[in-house]
Amino acid sequence: MDSTFVQNVPSELICYICKDYFTDPFTLTCGHNFCTPCLCLLWEDAQHPPRCPVCRAVSPWIDFKSIIFAAKKVHASKESVACQLPNSAKQVCRVHLVVKDLFCPTDKSPLCLHCANSQRHAIHRHSPISQAAEQCREKLLVQMKSLWKSRQKNQKNLNKEYNLFRVWQGFVNLRMMMIRAEYPKVYQYLQEEKQKHLESLAVEGKIIFNQLRRNVGRMRHMGKLLRKMYEELKEMCCETDVDLFQDLGDIMKRSQIMQLHIPQPVNPQLSSWTITGMSERLNNFRVYLTLDHNISNYRVALFEDLRHLQCSPDYQDMPHSPASPQYMPLWGAQTFTSGKHYWEVDVGNSCNWIIGLCKESWINRNGMLLNSEGIFLLLCIQVDDICRLFSASPPLRHYIQRPQGWIGVFLDYECGTVSFVNVAQSSLICNLRSCSFSCPLRPFICYGPK
Ligand SMILES: [Zn+2]
Ligand SMILES: [Zn+2]
Ligand SMILES: [Zn+2]
Ligand SMILES: [Zn+2]
């Protein structure tokens, strides 16, 4: 924009941040106006709470997702100054020496009235140039909205991916410890299998680690590209009508293509290997569960709790099911206070279930929350079409194949361990070690909504 020209425009029509006409203006509670895109860019990395860049007043948290381009106030102010544009800024037809007032969408170029009436343009539908420009800018804003959404999505993915990348090696090490503990020392012939098992785990863990590292890099780079493209689109909004017509097609295409190439998060899963003889060994401690039908109708908040934990702070994005989901909490009739006990539970094909053991005190408490003490559970929950496996408590995600069918639960009261076993594969799902049991433990099963 011509700077001498902008100087002559009343300051209330100019955005303080970009020093140009407002693009989709937004008024803060202090009364100062800015372009919505300018605020998006300024506040994206800013410390909370965000402040007005003019008077430094703290602005209440703004949900940009809902206000962004919510109203069609696009360039209302720009239109009002359009009449002030000097004639040199408009194009003059070289043949007819009059201002080009019309726009030909077929040729994507401005025309004068005489050219528009010529043979060549006879079948075209022409519109006033200001109206065509307005439509272009609206298209631009729609594109910006979509680009900003993609950027936010990418940023969210990046945060999750980076968090996983940071803890990944720790998880692999923990899993190796679990596996090592499941090989009994007495069977010398299993030493070779144990070694192979641990080596494959280390290799697989390393491959996923590198995938995560690459993905974090890609997502960071994409975040920068998306931001740059957004700034480019914002600048485009402020261009003269003539430049706008020329460059719009290209920039829209580039923006769309960029959004198609946003890196997807890795969904890491370590393989499960059979541990020879594990099922047979555990079967020596087999008990058959009978269920206590007197304890029931408790509200089990575990699934909601876990979902919350998984999705926060983006919990509001979750598709909420207002109807209360069908839980089926079941308790074993017997409690255990010593010894080794093994039982099996069929979870079938379901993605939402909880099995394990808990203290009586947990059952009696209202809500039965996840971060409580005295729960030794394996939880499977479906979030965003992905089945996730956790142990509790504390909640720890396990990145292994989802078990289906029969799951074995093995309690060693004196050793303070609970192991979960995939029965069909004779493989270890996970074990909770160094728990200290000091009171009766009751088997617990809960089937969540399918
Ligand atoms: Zn601005
Ligand atoms: Zn202010
Ligand atoms: Zn002409
Ligand atoms: Zn035409």
From TrEMBL:
<dbReference type="InterPro" id="IPR043136">
    <property type="entry name" value="B30.2/SPRY_sf"/>
</dbReference>
<dbReference type="InterPro" id="IPR050143">
    <property type="entry name" value="TRIM/RBCC"/>
</dbReference>
<keyword id="KW-0863">Zinc-finger</keyword>
<dbReference type="InterPro" id="IPR001870">
    <property type="entry name" value="B30.2/SPRY"/>
</dbReference>
<dbReference type="InterPro" id="IPR013083">
    <property type="entry name" value="Znf_RING/FYVE/PHD"/>
</dbReference>
<dbReference type="GO" id="GO:0008270">
    <property type="term" value="F:zinc ion binding"/>
</dbReference>
<dbReference type="InterPro" id="IPR027370">
    <property type="entry name" value="Znf-RING_euk"/>
</dbReference>
<dbReference type="Pfam" id="PF00622">
    <property type="entry name" value="SPRY"/>
</dbReference>
<dbReference type="Pfam" id="PF13445">
    <property type="entry name" value="zf-RING_UBOX"/>
</dbReference>
<dbReference type="InterPro" id="IPR001841">
    <property type="entry name" value="Znf_RING"/>
</dbReference>
<feature type="domain" description="B box-type">
    <location>
        <begin position="88"/>
        <end position="129"/>
    </location>
</feature>
<dbReference type="InterPro" id="IPR000315">
    <property type="entry name" value="Znf_B-box"/>
</dbReference>
<feature type="domain" description="RING-type">
    <location>
        <begin position="15"/>
        <end position="56"/>
    </location>
</feature>
<dbReference type="InterPro" id="IPR003879">
    <property type="entry name" value="Butyrophylin_SPRY"/>
</dbReference>
<feature type="domain" description="B30.2/SPRY">
    <location>
        <begin position="269"/>
        <end position="450"/>
    </location>
</feature>
<keyword id="KW-0862">Zinc</keyword>
<dbReference type="InterPro" id="IPR017907">
    <property type="entry name" value="Znf_RING_CS"/>
</dbReference>
<dbReference type="InterPro" id="IPR003877">
    <property type="entry name" value="SPRY_dom"/>
</dbReference>
<dbReference type="InterPro" id="IPR013320">
    <property type="entry name" value="ConA-like_dom_sf"/>
</dbReference>
<protein>
    <submittedName>
        <fullName>Tripartite motif-containing protein 77</fullName>
    </submittedName>
</protein>
<keyword id="KW-0479">Metal-binding</keyword>
